[in-house]
Amino acid sequence: MELADLAWPAVNSLPKTTPVVFPIAALEQHGRHMPVFTDSLLCGEVVRRVKQTPVGAKCLFAPMQWLGNSHHHIDFPGTLSASARVYLDLLKDLARCFIGYGFTRIVFVNGHGGNTVPSQQALFELKQDLRDRRDLLLLSLTYWDSRGGPPTDIPGLVQTQMGHACEWETSMVLRLAPHLVHGHANAPEVPFGKGFAPGYRAWVMPDRSEPGHIGTPAAATAEKGEALFAYFAAGVASYLERVAAWDGVSWDA
Description:
Number of strands: 4
Number of domains: 1
Radius of gyration: 18 Å
Number of helices: 7
Oligomer: single chain
């Protein structure tokens, strides 16, 4: 169900256990070969495919929130970003609106790495504000994590994790809008590196990549992109089925 298509009485009449899905992404630089709207395009396509599965009729889908927390890309022209606190409060307010209408299951489906921590923190704070509400299910899922691991059955796939304007993202844009990709075959590999793992090192993109991408875009193909879309859409659909089936009580689901 599309929130944007409904009048308020139709929204009000929905079961309050209906999962409310907020797709969240970004508008930011994606190297020299990819459009700045990449994250929103890809997350939007994953969600579009999810809507075509049976769970699509069980959920209420809000429009894409294209502005993300992208300050780590702000050195590259074209990036638009909300600072971390502003973005946190935006996400909290989106969720609060529907909690205020009586809905109890909120899911952020995320398509930008920089949104992962803010979306989790927003829900963490919101749950503390509403700590006595045992009926609330507040979730954030990054679509490329939806299957619990990387795809292992896509022929020729080089990367084992999501990068940035990388083999995976470039492949998906080649499948979705190939006219927006320019010169990826000549883009050099930018290794992921260790980054002081297993600890976390704070970074901005110029610390890691002069052209603005991370990974191996030259290995991208439209065929891989179709396989990746199918893989991730199946993962998100399965996750939303779990949300719809939650018994309203259990911690494990």
